[in-house]
Amino acid sequence: MVLAGFWIRLAGFFVDWLLFFAISFGLSLIWSTRQVTVVGGSTVVFHGSTAAVDLVVLVLEIVYFTWLWSSWGASLGQQLVGVKVIDASTGDRPRLSQALVRFVGYVISALCILLGFIWVAFDGRKEGWMDKLASTLVVRAR
């Protein structure tokens, strides 16, 4: 069992981030288009995020990450780069409750200027805050 380091985990996270950026952007185009007529009769179209789009994306992220971690042991980005999430004590896929706690750790890590993610680079067991909270490890799958 080889622990996955910071850079490979970042690559997997980036793939997942791109997926949700595309979803958010697409939903914003559909739900958040505003046309404004400005002086001179020109029409300007604005695209932006709304609270509804943000809420839908958050719910999709919760379902996506918790389901994939507990069912497959890895998100799509993690699968692509060859890492998986395991329960630190059993080596099995995390339970659904663990995956949900891990997602909460993701949110906390992001809100603290990404320190919970950066922690992986300096931790002896290569655990981020989300791993410490949920008692998980990220290991190489290949």
What are the main properties of this structure?
142 residues; alpha+beta; two-stranded antiparallel ribbon; 6 helices; 58% helix; 14% strand; elongated
Strand content: 5-15%
Total of helices: 6
Order of helices and strands: HEEHHEHHHE
Characterize the largest beta sheet: strand count, sense, and whether it forms a barrel: 2 strands, antiparallel
Shape: elongated
Structural class: alpha+beta
N-to-C terminal Cα separation, in Å? 10 Å
Write down how many β-strands occur, each being a DSSP E stretch of 2 or more residues.
4
The average pLDDT value, as a whole number, equals: 92
Low-confidence stretches: none
Q: Compute the number of structural domains.
A: 1
The Rg value, from CA coordinates, equals 18 Å
Strand order of the largest sheet: 1-2
Helix content: 55-70%
Question: How would you describe the overall organization of this protein?
Answer:
The radius of gyration is 18 Å and the shape is elongated. It has helices at 6-31, 51-71, 76-81, 96-111, 115-122, 129-134; strands spanning 33-37, 43-47, 83-87, 136-140. The mean pLDDT is 92. The protein has one domain (6-140). By secondary structure, the chain is of the alpha+beta class. A hairpin with a 5-residue loop joins strand 1 and strand 2 (43-47). The strands form two sheets. A two-stranded antiparallel ribbon has the order 1-2. Strands 3-4 form a two-stranded antiparallel sheet.
TL;DR?
The chain is an alpha+beta fold.
Question: Which helices and strands appear, and what pairs or packs with what?
Answer:
Layout: H1 6-31, E1 33-37, E2 43-47, H2 51-71, H3 76-81, E3 83-87, H4 96-111, H5 115-122, H6 129-134, E4 136-140
Antiparallel strand pairs: 1-2, 3-4
Helix pairs in contact: 1-2, 2-4
